[in-house]
């Protein structure tokens, strides 16, 4: 299997001794290119920790995290930051857009932080906004957009350039159900058509049904996994 993400025996402990809390305990998870994996589990089971570790935003206590074959737990902070800017896109429930920047400026930001020229970054940003079907909003500010439009901008920022891994933490949590489904369709299309690997954290089984595979976390342990949920067939017929 050609894995974009390969997590091995991942443990994340907070505190020590009597105070120790294990957010993750020995989790293994591989995500192939073109695959979308949903992560489900009760509140506090470690879903967000799994995503932040996979994206290099949090450091595990032990274990390996290979992104495109590079173990980020052994890389310097600068190297992890560079890999994150170039290869990993994050989508959050609350969009995390910068209000003072237009849609195109928000999307171009990771490329500019990575040293791209403003004009080149703008060109890529416009292409990404076209891919999420809102090219006409390039010069609009987040406060003048609907929630669904903001999430599309956030997805454009997550896919701009040459990103290979898309990490989405409850990306539909702030959206109504139709808008949420449209956002999931976008994530699905990215994986299908562009060979990106995706991890989707969700509480909602209907949303998990967009994934190729669902894994379940409980108390920091991966307790099971399933193929596409039965609802997927219903959704496919409805699409
Ligand atoms: N900085 C921290 N210090 C101590 N404990 C933490 C810290 N961050 C997370 N935890 C604990 O780790 C466990 C996993 O948290 P995490 O946020 O990953 O769960 P989650 O499944 O994403 O929850 P939710 O669905 O509520 O977002 C929880 O018990 C949480 O309290």
UniProtKB/TrEMBL annotation:
The name of this protein is: ABC transporter ATP-binding protein
Q: Name one Pfam family in it.
A: ABC_tran
Q: Which InterPro entries match?
A: AAA+_ATPase (IPR003593), ABC_transporter-like_ATP-bd (IPR003439), ABC_transporter-like_CS (IPR017871), ABC_transpr_LolD-like (IPR015854), MacB-like_ATP-bd (IPR017911), P-loop_NTPase (IPR027417)
Q: From what superkingdom does this record's organism come?
A: Bacteria
Q: Name one GO molecular function term.
A: ATP binding
Residues in ABC transporter domain copies: 5-238
Can you list the GO cellular component terms from the UniProt entry? Answer: membrane protein complex; plasma membrane
């Amino acid at each position: 299997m050609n894995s974009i993400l390969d997590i091995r025996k991942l443990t994340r402990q907070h505190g020590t001794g009597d105070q120790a809390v294990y957010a993750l305990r020995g989790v293994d998870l591989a995500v192939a290119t073109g695959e979308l994996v949903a992560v489900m589990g009760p509140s506090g089971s470690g879903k967000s920790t799994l995503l932040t570790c996979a994206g290099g935003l949090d450091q595990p206590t032990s274990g390996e995290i290979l992104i495109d074959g590079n173990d980020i737990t052994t890389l310097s902070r600068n190297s992890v930051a560079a890999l994150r800017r170039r290869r990993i896109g994050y989508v959050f429930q609350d969009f995390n857009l910068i209000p003072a920047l237009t849609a195109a400026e928000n999307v171009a930001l990771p490329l500019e932080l990575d040293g791209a020229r403003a004009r080149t970054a703008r060109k890529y940003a416009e292409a990404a906004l076209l891919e999420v079907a809102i090219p006409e909003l390039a010069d609009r500010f987040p406060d003048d957009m609907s929630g669904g439009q903001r999430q599309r901008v956030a997805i454009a920022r997550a896919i701009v350039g040459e990103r290979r891994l898309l990490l989405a933490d409850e990306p539909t949590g702030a959206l109504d159900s139709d808008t949420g489904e449209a956002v999931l369709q976008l994530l699905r299309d990215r994986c299908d058509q562009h060979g990106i690997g995706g991890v989707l954290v969700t509480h909602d089984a209907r949303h998990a049904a967009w994934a190729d595979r669902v894994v379940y976390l409980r108390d920091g342990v991966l307790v099971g996994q399933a193929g596409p949920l039965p609802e997927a067939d219903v959704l496919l017929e409805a699409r």
